[in-house]
C-alpha cells in the first residue's frame, strides 16, 4: 500500500490589481517579484477587460498561454488566419512556438469580461515549433464530484476523483483544476510528485492543509496565490460547515523544466542572445515572424477610447 504525503505551504500572498494592455486590469501573481520563474510557470493574470479595452496586436515567442474565461467573451485573431471566440467556461491553449502575432479583444456586447491567463514555458527543443491553437469548450470538460456531492471539480487538465481530462492540450505537462467546495465539503487532491503547484483563490474562504500537522492548516480568502512545496503528493482543501458561501479556487501543477528562463516581454528564451534574436526577427519579419509584416487584426480595430 503506497503512502501519500501532504504538501506544505511555502507561502501565500494577495495578487494586487494593476493596469495591463489597453484599459485592462489584472491581478498578477506568478511573474511578480514575489513569485518569478516558478518553472514551468511564467505568469498568471486574473484579468478584467471592459468593452473598448483589451490586448491589441502583439507578438509571442517561446511559450504557451492558457486562457480560461470565467465571464463574458473574448475574440482572438492571429497573422496565420486563425480566429475565434471563447465564452464562459471555455479554454484556449495557444502555443507561440517560433513566433505568433495576435490580438485578444473582449466581445463588445458584454459588460465585463473576466478570466485567467497562464503563461507556461516551452522546453527548449520545442521553442521553435510551429504555432498552434486548441480550444476546449465548457461542455467538453469532464466534471468530478466527491462522494457526498459537496465538492465539484472541472478537470480541465489532469485528473481528480478518478476522472481524467482530455489529452494533448499543451506541450508542457500541466494540471489545471477548477474546484468548488461547499460548506462542510472537503477534498484531498493528488498531485504529481516533484511538480511545482499552486492554488489561486477566486471565491469564499478555503482552508488548505499545510503538511501532515492539521493544526497548521491555513484559511485563505479570494485573490491569493498559495504556493506549495515541491515535495509531497497531495493537497487537502475544505470549507467549514458553518460557512455562509462556497469557496472556489484554481489548482495548478506543472512539470519543472531544467533550463534557464530569459524573458523580455512576450519573448521567452533560454539566453540573452536568443532574446536579442527574437527582437530582431520580429522587427525584420523573419525566422517565424514573416507574416507579421504589415499585418493588422480586424478585432484590434474595435479598440474604443479608454477612459
TrEMBL record:
Domain Pirin N-terminal: 26-120
Binding site for Fe cation: 58, 60, 102, 104
Cofactor needs: Fe cation
Superkingdom of this protein's organism: Eukaryota
Single GO molecular function: metal ion binding
Transmembrane spans: none
Family (UniProt): Belongs to the pirin family.
Official protein name in the record: Pirin
Organism for this UniProt entry: Cladophialophora yegresii CBS 114405
Amino acid at each position: 500500500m503506497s503512502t501519500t504525503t501532504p504538501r506544505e505551504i511555502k507561502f501565500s500572498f494577495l495578487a494586487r490589481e494593476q493596469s495591463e494592455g489597453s484599459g485592462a486590469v489584472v491581478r498578477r501573481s506568478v511573474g511578480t517579484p514575489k513569485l518569478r520563474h516558478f518553472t514551468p510557470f511564467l505568469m498568471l493574470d486574473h484579468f478584467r477587460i471592459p468593452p473598448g479595452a483589451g490586448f491589441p496586436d502583439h507578438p509571442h515567442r517561446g511559450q504557451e498561454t492558457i486562457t480560461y474565461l470565467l465571464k463574458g467573451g473574448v475574440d482572438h485573431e492571429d497573422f496565420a488566419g486563425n480566429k475565434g471566440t471563447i465564452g464562459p467556461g471555455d479554454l484556449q491553449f495557444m502555443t507561440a512556438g517560433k513566433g505568433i502575432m495576435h490580438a485578444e479583444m473582449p466581445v463588445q456586447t458584454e459588460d465585463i469580461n473576466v478570466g485567467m491567463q497562464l503563461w507556461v514555458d516551452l522546453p527548449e527543443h520545442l521553442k521553435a515549433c510551429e504555432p498552434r491553437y486548441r480550444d476546449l469548450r465548457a461542455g467538453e470538460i469532464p466534471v468530478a464530484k466527491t462522494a457526498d456531492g459537496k465538492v465539484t471539480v472541472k478537470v480541465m487538465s489532469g485528473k481528480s476523483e478518478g476522472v481524467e481530462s482530455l489529452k494533448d492540450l499543451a506541450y508542457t505537462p500541466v494540471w489545471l483544476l477548477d474546484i468548488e467546495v461547499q460548506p462542510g465539503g472537503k477534498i484531498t487532491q493528488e498531485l504529481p510528485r516533484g511538480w511545482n503547484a499552486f492554488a489561486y483563490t477566486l471565491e469564499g474562504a478555503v482552508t488548505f492543509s499545510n503538511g501532515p500537522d492539521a493544526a497548521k492548516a491555513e484559511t485563505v480568502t479570494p485573490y491569493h496565490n498559495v504556493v506549495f512545496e515541491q515535495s509531497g503528493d497531495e493537497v487537502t482543501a475544505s470549507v467549514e460547515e458553518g460557512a455562509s458561501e462556497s469557496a472556489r479556487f484554481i489548482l495548478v501543477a506543472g512539470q519543472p523544466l531544467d533550463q534557464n528562463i530569459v524573458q523580455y516581454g512576450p519573448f521567452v528564451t533560454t539566453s540573452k542572445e536568443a532574446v536579442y534574436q527574437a527582437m530582431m526577427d520580429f522587427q525584420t519579419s523573419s525566422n517565424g515572424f514573416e507574416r507579421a509584416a504589415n499585418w493588422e487584426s480586424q478585432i484590434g480595430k474595435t479598440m474604443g477610447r479608454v477612459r
